[in-house]
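Design review, sub-item: ligand-bound model
Attendees: FS, YL, KQ
YL presented the inputs for the coenzyme A complex:
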Amino acid sequence: MALVIRPLEQRDFQNGFLEILASLAEVRLTPEEAQRIHQARVLAGVVTVVAEAEGRVVGTGTLLIERKFIHGGGVVGHIEDVAVGSDQHGKGVGSELVRHLTDLARQAGCYKVILNCRDAVMPFYIKLGYRRHDNGMRYDCVEKG
Ligand SMILES: CC(C)(COP(=O)(O)OP(=O)(O)OC[C@H]1O[C@@H](n2cnc3c(N)ncnc32)[C@H](O)[C@@H]1OP(=O)(O)O)[C@@H](O)C(=O)NCCC(=O)NCCS
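KQ shared the predicted structure:
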């Protein structure tokens, strides 16, 4: 399978991107709404990439870059929302996405890249050179109805 990892483009909102994100959580956006959100994210420096195979989107992942006051103004990468279409699992797509995002972080001068994941997914990241570090915490600002 010939795989291309490239930045998210407008046409992807009609080409499988939103369906793949739905494996992470409900999306509840029309393609037009998603497009507007993408434009705002790009202006904020958020980098979303897709994996394309045979003309359709089969995976996605996002990188946020944060400049800190600590570590002498060092730069940290945050990987978010990595997902691969369920019919494409186990073919190396997720690995290619995470390697690509990690390379982008390195090129941006990051001294580390961090992410949150469920325990069950840890082996996937460990195979890519990541290690367990700290614990994730969450506060729900909106009560679930
Ligand atoms: C996790 C996910 C992105 C992996 O993508 P993928 O394309 O199937 O992964 P790869 O084919 O590159 O797998 C690489 C290795 O990690 C392992 N792996 C993949 N998914 C795994 C999982 N969920 N748990 C444990 N190991 C996993 C594979 O077995 C493979 O091992 P191998 O090299 O020894 O064969 C994909 O399963 C997915 O989209 N899951 C649903 C969404 C999700 O949980 N995203 C992570 C959010 S943090």
